[in-house]
Amino acid sequence: MLLMCIKAFIVGGLICVVGQLLIDFTKMTPARILVIFVCTGVVLGAFGVYDKLVDFAGAGAAIPLTGFGNTLANGVRDAIKEQGFMGVLTGSFTAMAGGITVALLSALVTALVTKPKDK
Predict the structure, then answer these.
(1) Can you state the percent helix, strand and coil of the chain, rounding each to 5?
(2) Is it the case that residue 48 has pLDDT exceeding 90?
(3) How far is it, in rounded angstroms, from Cα 53 to Cα 50?
């Protein structure tokens, strides 16, 4: 258990370090960096590389945005096996429905409990 936590901390931390380096040493906007991370997760997931990283580091690899991209790739791959070409269109939605729902409900509860303000 402790070893898995250490591996998750190191891998998740390294992913965050890459993001911070991109912010510090390039002129890319944070939005572009986020898109790069998601697309990297999709590409690595499509080739099956990211699944090995998730097996190694657990949540340290599954939680960051690269893990989101990996889940999208896996969802599309599974849907193509089941539905054929239509899986290209539906796979990403079914794979991420639960995570997106939790994010939206959490945002709603937070907005209702706190006093949100414009900056």
Answers:
(1) 85, 0, 15
(2) no
(3) 5
